[in-house]
Design a protein that fits this description.
Layout: H1 22-32, H2 35-46, H3 55-62, H4 67-79, E1 83-89, E2 95-103, H5 106-115, H6 134-145, H7 152-162, H8 167-174, H9 178-192, H10 197-205
Antiparallel strand pairs: 1-2
């Protein structure tokens, strides 16, 4: 299932860290989230005018049936700098122990991560991979993010290929079996119109 966000009304920026346009910025942010995190983030982003959100209101908005799952997802979004958390006022000048959450736009998220030297993709993608040079690898990330046909996992596998990882190494990094990696690779090849790994890497880097 795809969880790429497609909100409207976001301001354009001329200075994205990887040279991506706003659609690619949205996809890059989605790529950095787990499916639960992205489901929560998407609900918050599409309802930004209704900010702030609580864990329980997000539970109702997303249909996620477990409050602990929602809370874990929110903690992940906080760590990835995608949302902010504040104490809630109880109307008497004091802060309620319950928290409310605010979502940043994809553009804001990328800028926030850039300021602390992070891309937010965690262990899945090494944006500073030296073998291909930052410029070429940045192009690969932008091209993967711009392909709306890719699932989040397929995008991760494609970028791991660009890093030069073998199927076994990709499996260990993503914590899946080698056969699962091969399955995702076949789908990636089809979606980029190539037949083998070397063609995929060339298409993403050139």
């Amino acid at each position: 299932m795809h969880y790429f966000v497609n909100p409207s009304g976001l301001a354009d920026s001329e200075n994205y860290p990887l040279g991506e346009n706003s659609e690619q910025a949205k996809a890059l942010v989605a790529l950095s989230h787990t499916p639960v995190e992205q489901l929560l983030y998407s609900a918050m982003l599409t309802g930004r005018n209704e900010n702030p959100f609580t864990a329980r209101s997000l539970m109702a908005l997303t249909g996620i049936g477990s409050l602990s799952t929602v809370r874990r997802g929110l903690e992940g979004l906080l760590l990835k700098m995608s949302i902010a958390r504040n104490g809630r006022s109880n109307g008497h000048g004091k802060r309620d122990p319950a928290h409310v959450y605010h979502a940043y736009s994809p553009i804001e998220i990328i800028q926030r991560r850039k300021e602390v030297g992070s891309n937010g993709l965690g262990e899945y993608v090494n944006i500073h991979h030296q073998g291909n040079g930052n410029g070429a690898f940045a192009k690969a990330i932008a091209r993967v993010a711009a392909n709306p046909l890719l699932s989040r996992r397929e995008a991760q596998v494609a970028l791991c290929c660009v890093e030069g990882l073998t199927n076994a190494e990709i499996g260990r990094r993503l914590e899946v079996g080698e056969q699962t990696v091969k399955f995702h690779l076949r789908r990636v090849y089809a979606k980029f119109g190539v037949k083998r790994r070397a063609e995929l890497i060339s298409k993403l880097l050139m």
